[in-house]
Amino acid sequence: MCLAIPAKVVSLDEMIATVDMMGNERKVGTHLVPELAVGQYVLVHAGFAIEIIDEQIAKETEELLLQEAQARFDEE
Description:
This protein is of the alpha+beta class. It contains one helix and five strands, in the order βββββα. It has one domain: SH3 type barrels (Roll), CATH 2.30.30. Helices cover about 30% and strands about 40% of the residues. The protein starts with a strand and ends with a helix. The relative contact order is 0.21.
């Protein structure tokens, strides 16, 4: 199963973006979204921003991921 995580673009340096993924900063490649701007939200998979997404979609996806993680933790 593949999973892409929403992230907010904090800064850009050529083809590398620093993104915030639920409070964790990471560097990701932006080769697939060259029109990317600081402040936008992206889906990140395998170290690359693969798609620009709407902020509301990003927030909803983060919430679903957190709910799933909590449910799995509660099962243990």
